[in-house]
Every structure is written in C-alpha cells, then in structure tokens.
C-alpha cells in the first residue's frame, strides 16, 4: 500500500511539474513577443514606434502608435488588406517586395518622402512590420495636448464627411489604380460586382479613357458606368482635380437628368415631325427673341431660305427680312413700320395679336401671335388667299343680287324660318319708310307686320302671314290685296323659298274701293 501511495505522489508531482513547465513556456512566448516589440521600438518604448505582428492576414499584437496608424485606413477587409492599402501609398513597391519576404526573411523599404523606413521580418508563420523614423529630431513635431485633440477631432470630422457623402469620391493614379475611395464608391463597386467581396485595389467603375479626358478639362464630364447595357446605362457627372501625382475624382448621379433630357429630346422630335406635316407656318421665338423652332411650311409660305432660318435670327431680323422680300404689308414710312412691329411684339406677348396681311403679290396671310411659358412667343402664318378669294366672290355675288333686287319696282322682303328679316330692297324701304340697315337689332316678322298694320287699313292678312312665315310644312304660294291709309292699293304675294325662307312682295295698284280685300291663290 505504501508503494501505491508513493507511485500516486510521484504521478501527481510529475503532472504538476508538466503543467508548470507549460505555463512557464506560454509566459516566455508572451514575454518574447513583448521583448520583440521593445527591441523594435528602442529606448522610447512601444508607444513611440509603429510595430505590427501578423499571423496570416490577422494582427495578433500591435503597438499603440500602430493602432492609431491603422485606424486611418478606410478599406473594408482583413487586417492585412487595410494595412497594405496604407503602406502602398507611403512605400512604393510594397506589394511587390512583400511577396518575396518568405525567401529573404527580411526586407527594408524607404518611404516616398525619405523620412521613414519600413522593415518587414518573417519568422515561421509570424510577420513583424516596423516603421521607423530616419531622423526623429527633424520629423517629430511637438504638440501640446489641446492642439493634438483639436487636430484629431478635425480629422475625425473630415473622415465622417467624406465617408457619409452621398456621391462617389475616389483617388487614383494616372494608370487607373484606385488608391483611396469613400464608402459610397465601395458600395457602388460591391453592387457592380454582384455583392462579391471587395479586394484592394477595387475595380474601376468608369472607363479609363473617358477619365483621362477629364484630366485636362476643368469642367465636369458626363460618363456612364462600365459594363452596363446601353439602354440601362447609369450616368454620372465627374469632376477631377490633380493631387500631387494622382487625381481626386468626385461623381454625382445625374441619371434622372439624362433621362429627362432624353424624354425632352424625344418629345421635341415628335413635335418636329408633327409640325413638319402642318400647312400652317410656325415660328417660335425664345425669351431672347431668337428663332428657336420652325417647320418647313414657314419657309414655303415666307420664301425665306433655310440657311437663314437655321441661323436663328432675332424677331426684328426675321421681320426685316420679310419686309425686304415684300412678304409683309408695306407701310407708308419706315418709322411707322418699326413702331408697328414693336406693338406687334407687345401684343403677341399678351396673346392679343391677330392680323390679316394683304401682300403685294395678291396673297393673303392670317398672322396670329401667341405667348408661351418662359417668355417665348409663337407666330402662326396661314395662307387664306383661297378663303379670301371665295369670300370676295361670295360678297360680290351678294352685292350683285342686292343690286338686282334694288332695280325692281316690286318691294321685296325675305324672312328666315325663325321670322328674322334676311333681305330687302330699295323699293321696300321707300314704301314702308323703313331701312333695316339702320336698326341695331334684327327686324322680325312681328315687328314688320306691326309697321305694316299701322300704315294700312285693318285686314286679317298680317296674322295669316305671321303663321305662314313660321310654318315649316305644307306651304304654298298665295296672294292678297291691301289698302294703305292714303288710299293706295298694294298687291301682296307670299312665296315659300328653300331652307324655310319666305318672300313677301308688294306691288302698287293705285286707288282701290273700300270693299277691296280679296285673296287669290297663285297656281
């Protein structure tokens, strides 16, 4: 039993010794890492140096200064990707050199400004990267605590502004390599690559040749995103500014503006095609009174050459040219014509201009001015020569018919179906001492019969005539004799005409007997 106890004690002691050895080894390894940091930082301690300790792509230890240095990275990804993004800009050739670290075990790389040096060392699966200042006395800037916090707050504000900016901001080299980008740009890259993880440097969103044109132009340039169908392209307005050997870009989404411009262009094309088939000449002048839109009919009606119209003449120049080719009524003097054109423009702006131009060539144009939104005005030129010719011929025929009626001895009056006097001759005016042209309102059959009754002996003829004029069916010609108050007799005839009209004729018979009041039917 004693032997068993000794064996048990011996086993417990051995186990305790093993655990103590493992604990000591762990502490030693941690002390080695701390010692490595202390060796890399020198006498000033870890806080004064920039040291990173990597295992694979992950940092397992770093100095406070290194932690602040890494916080400046805006790249999303692993620890190695974030640090690589910062070191590539400060130490040219870092990506190429670090790939040979396993072969050489140690690399040294000076910074671009020559004020610091990067030392990378590999030991097994551990990589230590140290950034040392070459001349501490000349590169270190002493700041009091208040100034440091103020600068740190300003830096944090600037970072937040850039990161939360809703438009794309990025920095790239001349060959198109992106060296920095804000969150909006990276989100656009992720969306453009169907949500794949972003690797640094990220893929370019815009065509490099299009961006190169922006290098030499200070004005904004409109560029579409790469690798999108033409009908669904997304357009951005890109601004560029040189920053050292690189360029800083910002891009604002103007897709809605481009879509609106395309719709407006299509609308204008539709209007142009529609106006091209109109027989009415159209001339639209913008707010500056320059010709903005016209159709082919305008050139045909005004005989103005197309090259003159496409040169966008002013309204005054347009009217001057019409006057030169006698396509506008010629006033007696030029000053009066100028004054009239000024009144024309003012009347058009108020929407009240409408005139008929009788040209020396015998043509007649109806010119109408209309105001448009935004201060523009439009003129419509319509050739009404045929209409005016027809109107003149119709008026001539009416005048001829009136002249024929006036030459007759019989007094004639024609009433419409509604009872309104439509026509009369000179003999009618003389018999009844009534000129319809001198009255403001239309003369009706009721008013006419009242006038006749006052000048005649009592007779039932006028009541029957009123019914006859307003009757629309089964009408036949009839006649009657009446006697005026002065004793003269009148032979009356009542004839239905097409369209519901009624002709009333009065012929003088001379003195008649008091018993005269007979009617005769006219076959």
Word description of this protein:
By secondary structure, this protein is of the alpha+beta class. The protein folds into 4 domains: 2-139, Beta-Lactamase (2-Layer Sandwich), CATH 3.30.450; 145-257, 2-Layer Sandwich (Beta-Lactamase), CATH 3.30.450.20; 278-387, 2-Layer Sandwich (Beta-Lactamase); 408-521, PAS domain (Beta-Lactamase, 2-Layer Sandwich). It contains 18 helices and 21 strands. The strands form 4 sheets. A 6-stranded antiparallel beta sheet has the order 17-16-20-19-18-21. α17 (445-454) packs antiparallel against α18. Mean pLDDT is 78; it is low at 1-46, 138-143 and 512-523.
List keywords for this structure.
Beta-Lactamase, single chain, 42% helix, 21 strands, 523 residues, 4 domains, disordered C terminus, rod-shaped, alpha+beta
Largest sheet: 6 strands, antiparallel
Ends distance: 168 Å
The CATH topology of the largest domain is Beta-Lactamase
**Strand tally:** 21
CATH architecture of the largest domain: 2-Layer Sandwich
Helix content: 40-55%
Instruction: Walk across the major sheet and give the strand order.
Output: 17-16-20-19-18-21
Give the number of domains: 4
Q: Report the principal-axis shape.
A: rod-shaped
Could you list the spans in which at least 5 consecutive residues all have pLDDT below 50?
A: 1-46, 138-143, 512-523
* Name of the CATH class of the largest domain: Alpha Beta
- Estimate the mean pLDDT confidence: 78
Q: Name the structural class.
A: alpha+beta
Tell me the β content: 15-25%
User: Helix count?
Assistant: 18
Cα-based radius of gyration, to the nearest Å: 53 Å
